Write a sequence for this structure.
């Protein structure tokens, strides 16, 4: 087992010294998004920076159900669609782009989704606060590829982060990644395959899963001639 499994409460570097895997982003919002953020954030939103101590992800939903962690939910269309089609599981979306958070809040409200919560901030900080084996699945769809070599250290899919994410998966839980950046896809494949407690479900890149909705971002990638790569790994029991 890794040191994460042996001692989940071991001291970690303070947030100020950690390398961020994302760009903090705000951006312009429509009046609809501004209204959704003001009205719905108190009900469905979570500020990761405000969390104090360990958190049970199931506690955000007020029921006992499997939890899927969505790291980087973008504008939220895919998260809302998956949650609507999968009401027996709860979806905890993490995003740093304020218009995306607001858009997902609006989708949740308009479609009456009770199984979605939206957390703002660093997903890895949230994961560090979770108990081991508390998640049914982790989705990392189209993360920032950080294409420049000197920025590869900022990529979310690297050994240390994968070990952390895997430690929070229950036995049989799924870590599902997708990217349209071929070099990053191969790096992801090597990193995930090297983890001693993850099994590659498809022995390489997976066929495109029907349950992952096609987003506008993915359509643009395909239109530009960039293939999309899925990787699906399962935690051993």
């Amino acid at each position: 087992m890794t040191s994460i499994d042996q001692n989940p409460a071991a001291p970690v570097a303070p947030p100020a010294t950690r390398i961020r895997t994302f760009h903090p982003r705000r951006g312009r919002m429509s009046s609809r998004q501004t209204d959704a953020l003001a009205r719905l954030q108190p009900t469905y939103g979570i500020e990761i920076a405000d969390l104090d101590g360990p958190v049970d992800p199931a506690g955000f939903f007020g029921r006992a159900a499997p939890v899927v962690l969505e790291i980087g939910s973008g504008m939220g269309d895919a998260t809302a669609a998956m949650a609507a089609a999968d009401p027996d599981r709860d979806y905890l979306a993490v995003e740093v782009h304020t218009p995306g958070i607001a858009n997902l809040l609006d989708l949740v409200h308009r479609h009456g989704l009770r199984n979605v919560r939206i957390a703002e901030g660093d997903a890895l900080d949230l994961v560090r606060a979770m108990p081991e084996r508390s998640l049914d699945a982790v989705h990392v769809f189209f993360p920032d590829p950080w294409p420049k070599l000197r920025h590869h250290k900022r990529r979310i899919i690297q050994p240390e982060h994968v070990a952390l994410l895997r430690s929070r998966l229950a036995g049989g839980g799924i870590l599902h990644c997708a990217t349209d950046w071929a070099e990053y896809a191969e790096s992801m494949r090597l990193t995930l395959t090297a983890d001693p407690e993850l099994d590659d479900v498809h022995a390489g890149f997976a066929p495109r899963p029907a349950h992952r909705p096609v987003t506008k971002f993915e359509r643009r990638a395909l239109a530009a001639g960039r293939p999309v790569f899925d990787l699906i790994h399962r935690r051993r029991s």
